[in-house]
Amino acid sequence: MSVIKLTKQLISIPSYLSSKTNEKIIGDFVFSYLKQFPYFKIKKQKIDKKRFNIIAETSDVPRLFLAGHLDTVEPKQGWSKNQFKGITKNGKLYGLGSLDTKSGVAAILDSLCDFKKISNLNLLFYCDEEYNFKGMKKFIASPKKKIGNLAILVEPTDLKIWNTHRGLIEIYFSIQGKSGHAADPKSGKNAIDGITRAFVDLQNRLEKFTDPILGIPSFNIAYIRGGLYQGNRNGNIKLGKEGNNIADFAEAVIDIRPTNQKLRVKKIKAWLEEFLIKEGYKLLNFSVRHDFAPLYSDSSNPSELKILEKVLQKNLGKVGYLNPSKKGYGDGQLLQEKFNIPVIYLGPKGANAHGIDEWVDINSLKKLRQIFSELIASYCKTEHHHNLPL
User: Fold this and answer.
1) Residues 305-341: pLDDT tens digits?
2) Are residues 307 and 265 in the same domain?
3) Residue 135 lies in a domain
4) Residue range of the domain that includes 126
5) Which residues lie below 8 Å from residue 90, measured CB to CB, with a gap of 6+?
């Protein structure tokens, strides 16, 4: 099976998360595919219910770790082509997850066919990257001490090395003020005013945690609501909207993308509490969805990344590094934090990931497949098949 046919096969298996769909069927497909290689020890790592990661390990101490997530975002309305057919046109392969990142998974899987035997290689195909990172969190919770000297995760990168990105902090919190008559603002403490000024205070503090590469941490108010508190029924807070009352309750969800390793949730909570107490408000609820640091993998590492650069130079004629200034968070950061090794992302060219008419460039996918084959040969002990078409 060629890398194009394999990508189409993966696209044809829906793997977004819903009440009826998850990664089980595509996981079973990948698990069965890997069974053709007798040098792998393969296992399913249970996540929840029927969901699982797939871990494949060869003999001897691992040197190279390759990984890709099996889930996609949910289907969207407005596609001009069937999202699950894997349609090729004008050098492009269309389909949900074609770029992010079933083509990358296919490139890893198909490159294995070049070898009669491989040692020193570990693989991970995992769940829930697009949602809550359950797959990667489960993997790093295992007692493993070593996965390799270099980890490469497939993501869309235009065949460039992506080795640095901001972290991810997402917080919900609510505050309590004091109600009063709207005609006399000083008779109360307006919680909506208090929470908005807390945002300004946070932004000013964040600017001190800048980085020469990643810049100032980003700050986004994702959700805000406030009013006169009228009770909580089964977790649903009821708020009054009458204009003659001073709002005594406000809640918000904020998203911060830290660029400094020292900027974590503990510090942000302390800042909020300090400001609110000083201004006469009370922090009621504070919950954390994400608290992840930035990723930094040194491009000057002579012993590991130089091998990757050499392979890219051979196949592409140049080595490029992706500009990280506008890139989001990737859960490869969790691998680096756990195993303290260089972690980079590498993937094909394309467009519209998470959008309508997502596509991957077919030529770049073929090159990626060859790059993975040569990386395995460079990092691992291998025996090639002879005269095997690529």
Assistant:
1) 889 999 999 999 999 999 988 788 999 999 999 999 9
2) no
3) yes
4) 3-165+295-384
5) none
